[in-house]
């Protein structure tokens, strides 16, 4: 590149790439020897936030993104500020080594989140923003854990069903099966707070809903071991039967009014997992235990049917009060 000035703008460089630059001088006599070489690193491309994989609770959010760069970057910076407030009022989390970050937030607020990628050349431009709310429990179903016969919708009200044409032998031995029921897992923020979600179900659906440790064996019943807890509905010729299973054991409980919307309340601090008839605000059962690890929500069907997951809900007072 020939220039007459003592400076030059070099354009069309690749992001997050290293270049060597040197200069020679030219006059009528010829070209001078090259200058010492300078090494320059271009800044990265902006990361790409993944809203469908971001989850939040009342006081925290787990933010995930893709690097947006072919070559590795040194770290990432998460920037957040309240909606309707200027960027200058925001805060940052710096030197994040991977493409996810758990950030503490204030309850009952709405935040705008940006991510920057950083290398020795400096920070990238801000990513496209996402909005995160701390007004309830927001999480998504993990598609890579879903049994092949389950159909997950793209919106927040997630329908899934069991394919009536799928052979029992097929569903029994899938990697994502809790024995006879086909299952899918949800993702929760890994912080020891309170969480609440609700599930609508078909009247005839036989289901299990609950929580399990991440390393729960997938070839055992949900609720059939000491690493999972669930409420189960069984439709018998004479009645609707409900079980509250942990380690294969259930108390003898009779529920006279069939709940078609179930509320699930998880409180790590108090060590409880409670189930409610959400429409009647009726307490059904509470597991009292000390959770040794974080758990994931679990949703499973024992026969063809449909469940609708409702997240982003604030836990009602009758649920949170001891």
Automatic annotation (TrEMBL):
Source species of the chain: Sinocyclocheilus grahami (Dianchi golden-line fish)
Matching SMART domains: SPRY (SM00449)
Annotated protein name in UniProt: Fibronectin type III and SPRY domain containing 2
Ranges of residues in domain B30.2/SPRY: 119-318
Domain Fibronectin type-III: 43-137
Pfam families: SPRY
Record keywords: Coiled coil
